[in-house]
Write a structure and sequence with these properties.
261 residues; alpha/beta; 2 domains; 12 strands; 33% helix; binds adenosine-5'-diphosphate
Length: 261
């Protein structure tokens, strides 16, 4: 079933067109990754879906137009996970995750909300960090707490902006495995902007490759990540090999004059 349907989406900052007539479908329980060079419009698209920005065209979430939904309804159904580095929170891990319950809380925090937070911390194996200060955690721990906060909203879709940037190999895998098991076990869909093509190839069901604000190509990682596509979208000569039946990209050199954006 279709979870999100984006039709003819166009967005401009002042007169500067950033996204041009995008059409994207996100299915139930899939990980869809937005890839493309810096400035190609990945973050802008995520912000349009979360209605932080107001584009032209339509975005249907489970058949309902996001533009006509109340803010609280959006907050219940879309869980936005920002980059951990952009989120200085002076509070404990427990309270950070409790903030995710806000769209559900009527006038005071209920036992059910506290239980939900405790369950979410346990699900992501964060219970031992519950009383720690968010600001004192490592990058990987912060990213998982921000995922827990979004998950406490009980969303239909997780929107993630570069969830693995600034993380070492182990924490990158930890975060991606967490997202992958949530998608499988809870039927949530995940839409993420991600730079690392090898991680995207390994964990995504679908890739959408953006180039200068248009969809250059979309499909399964095996079909999409060809040497030709990487050269045309990134301006990089790369070797594409197979490993564990997934494409594995080795960037070789930057192609002069073909730099994308
Ligand atoms: P990506 O996430 O793929 O790196 P972005 O969505 O951040 O790309 O940016 C797409 C384009 O929009 C870039 O050219 C960027 O300069 C421009 N842009 C981003 N934010 C703003 C803003 N607040 N005002 C004007 N232009 C912006």
């Amino acid at each position: 079933m279709v979870k999100i349907s984006i039709k003819d989406l166009t967005f401009s900052y002042q007169s500067n067109k950033i996204l041009d007539d995008l059409n994207v479908i996100v299915d139930d329980a899939e990980i869809l990754s937005l890839v493309g060079p810096n400035g190609s419009g990945k973050t802008t698209l995520i912000k349009c879906i979360d209605r932080i920005l107001k584009p032209k065209g339509s975005i249907l979430l489970e058949g309902q137009d996001v533009q006509s939904m109340k803010q609280q309804e959006i907050a219940r159904r879309l869980g936005y996970v920002p980059q951990s580095s952009s989120t200085p929170l002076a509070t404990t891990v427990f309270d950070t995750v409790l903030m995710g319950r806000r769209p559900h809380i009527s006038w005071r925090v209920s036992d059910a909300d506290l239980d939900k937070v405790a369950d979410t911390l346990e699900l992501l194996n964060l219970q031992e960090l519950a009383m720690r200060d968010f600001g004192q955690l490592s990058g990987g721990q912060k990213q998982k707490v921000l995922i827990a906060r979004a998950l406490a909203q009980e969303p239909a879709v997780l929107l993630l902006d570069e969830p693995t940037s600034n993380l070492d190999m182990k924490h990158q895998l930890d975060v991606m495995e967490t997202i992958s098991s949530l998608v499988k076990e809870k039927g949530i869909s995940a839409v993420m902007a991600i730079h690392d093509l090898n991680l995207a190839a390994r964990f995504s069901d679908t890739l959408v490759m953006l180039k200068k604000g248009v969809v250059y190509a979309a499909g399964a990682p095996n079909d999409l990540l060809s040497e030709k596509n990487i050269s045309e979208v990134y301006g990089v000569e790369a070797l594409v090999m197979r490993s564990l039946d997934k494409p594995c990209i080795v960037p070789l050199r930057s192609l002069n004059g073909a730099a994308a954006g």
